[in-house]
Amino acid sequence: MARAKVLVTRAWPAEVEARLAAGYEVTLNPSDTALTLAELIAAAADYDAILPTVTDRIGAEVFAGVPRLRILGNYGVGFSHIATDAAKAAGVVVTNTPDVLSDCTADIAMTLILMAARRAGEGERLVRSGQWTGWRPTQLVGRKVSGAVLGIVGFGRIGQALAHRAHHGFGMRVLVQNRSAVAPEVLAACGAVQVDTLDDLLPKVDVLSLHCPGGAANRHLIGAAALGRMRPDAILVNTARGEVVDEGALAAALASGQIAAAGLDVYEAEPRVTPALMGMENVVLLPHLGSATHETRAAMGHRVVDNLDAFFAGENPPDRVV
Ligand code: 8YV
């Protein structure tokens, strides 16, 4: 039987590429640069599967342009870059990679919380600049994280992993806002309390960390109005999706002192960052590192291939989202 043709849009960990090549007719993007929509459609024209990443915008045009396409195995948990309604209409299955990246993404959220609260980026820039003249009692004084109130928006796997770290590791008090009721035992496991609405949550928190999905439903969930409800000493952290935060409104809120600081791993138009944010000392900017460990990137790849194997064996893939 002919092997299924699989297009991998970016370079993957070598061990997963080898596993893929053993089971499929695989084409890897040799340049490892983000493909334009036209390039993607041309490259995938007669393929059965595309394995995209967050840098591939899979619009409705892809389904029209790739008539043989049967499955999109997304390398990542978030899939707001994929037009899922169009996938469904075209009869294309979509899978993602939950669980395996929760710990590492929560680690990056905690990193951003600590860096923003303790002014670690500023400190590193000071040392590297050669301008550090020595210790002073008032130098780069930040905020204490232990005992602070952490608000988590979206209490899925990653939000819960952060809550465990924050509560058990740092003694933070955790408040949660989620679209559905969270089971009492899940909240209790990390000392968390659920509040009803985002508006209830915002004025109560020292740190707000976002862990909800992206996409149209949550676009600019954190905009001028939400930022206006936060405290002037509060910190915003986003490791979810860039579109959840209105970057222009965030820059304005930081400039006016409406909130104190921010830590971002994701952006509205990656890799572009709103220029005003780039010049702010009280903003920590990371290049979408959430899942970037050797272990997790390999596990994500294996999860994609597990789904692919199930699909081509005629089974329902375990991480099917469409
Ligand atoms: C991925 C992520 O590495 O999984 C996600 O949703 O945000 C990242 O950690 C990225 O999306 C690759 O597609």
TrEMBL record:
Residues 110-290 form the D-isomer specific 2-hydroxyacid dehydrogenase NAD-binding domain. It comes from the Bacteria. GO terms for molecular function: glyoxylate reductase (NADPH) activity; hydroxypyruvate reductase [NAD(P)H] activity; NAD binding. The keyword Glycosyltransferase does not apply. Residues 6-321 form the D-isomer specific 2-hydroxyacid dehydrogenase catalytic domain. The keyword Ribonucleoprotein does not apply. Keywords: NAD, Oxidoreductase. One of its GO terms (cellular component) is cytosol. It holds the Pfam family 2-Hacid_dh_C. Belongs to the D-isomer specific 2-hydroxyacid dehydrogenase family. This is Glyoxylate reductase.
